[in-house]
Every structure is written in C-alpha cells, then in structure tokens.
C-alpha cells in the first residue's frame, strides 16, 4: 500500500496561515479581555479571530476577484483560494454570486465583529441589552 494523500505546499501554507490567525486572534482577544470574565475573554478571542479572517483572508479574495481573477494571481492568499478552487471552480474565476456574498461577509460581518469587540472592551450599554423572546 502507498502512503496516504500528501499535503501540498499551498495547502500546508494555508493551514499555517489559518492557524497563525487563530493564534493572533486568541492572543489579541485575551489581551483585550484582561480583567474580564471568561465569557467575555472567550467572546473577544473569537471575535478577533473572526475579524482577522474576514479582513485578512476574505478581503484579499474580493480584491483579487474584482481586479482580475484568482486563477491567474500570485501570492500566499491567492494560493490559498486556488487550493479552495480545486473543490469548486467558481472561486477561481469571477462568479458574481460568490464575490457579492464575500463582499457582504467582509463588510458586514467584519465590521460587526469590530463593533462587538468595541462594545465589550468599552462596556457599552448595548452589548448586553438583547432580550431574546422577552
């Protein structure tokens, strides 16, 4: 029997980048949450990671898609999306549905993560005023 599937350089680099963003997001969130409860620290770590993913990974995808296409782009981020494109070719060449959803994700979700981080760090009144079903 042969060896199992090998992890290519692009896939390995992508995993390393995602792990680095996770580490950076957790470190930043825990730093911002110093002196707060575990729930706030956990939320801040997640929100910092979430914002980093939207702005560092998905933002460049939108830019590369709007200025050309992923299939012909160079660089670490492009190689990450080229790897993703092996499973679904819509990610390699401009697909209006994919790009428009990514624009919404970057702008709305990324911005919302920043607003929530701000609300927790500055202890804004609106951060815990949601009353679900009451």
UniProtKB/TrEMBL annotation:
For molecular function, the Gene Ontology terms on record are: cholestenol delta-isomerase activity
Q: Domain (EXPERA): give its ranges.
A: 39-134
Where is the chain membrane-spanning?
A: 12-32, 44-66, 98-121
- Cellular compartment(s): Membrane
Q: Provide the leader sequence positions.
A: none
Question: Could you mention a single GO BP entry for this protein?
Answer: sterol metabolic process
Q: What is its main location?
A: membrane
Please provide the record's keywords in A-Z order.
Answer: Membrane, Transmembrane, Transmembrane helix
This protein's membrane topology, according to the annotation, is:
Multi-pass membrane protein
Q: What's a single GO CC term here?
A: endoplasmic reticulum
Q: Which family does it belong to?
A: Belongs to the EBP family.
Instruction: Return the protein name.
Output: Emopamil-binding protein-like isoform X2
């Amino acid at each position: 029997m042969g060896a199992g599937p090998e992890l290519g350089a692009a896939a390995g680099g992508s995993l390393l980048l995602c792990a680095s963003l996770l580490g950076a997001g957790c470190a930043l969130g825990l730093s911002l949450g110093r002196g707060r409860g575990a729930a706030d620290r956990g939320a801040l770590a997640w929100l910092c990671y979430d914002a980093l993913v939207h702005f560092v990974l998905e933002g460049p995808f939108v830019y590369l898609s709007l200025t050309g296409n992923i299939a012909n782009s160079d660089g670490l981020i492009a190689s990450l999306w080229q790897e993703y494109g092996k499973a679904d070719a819509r990610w390699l060449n401009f697909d209006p549905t994919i790009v428009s959803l990514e624009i919404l994700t970057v702008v709305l979700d990324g911005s919302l993560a920043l607003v929530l981080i701000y609300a927790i760090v500055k202890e804004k009144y609106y951060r815990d005023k949601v009353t679900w079903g009451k």
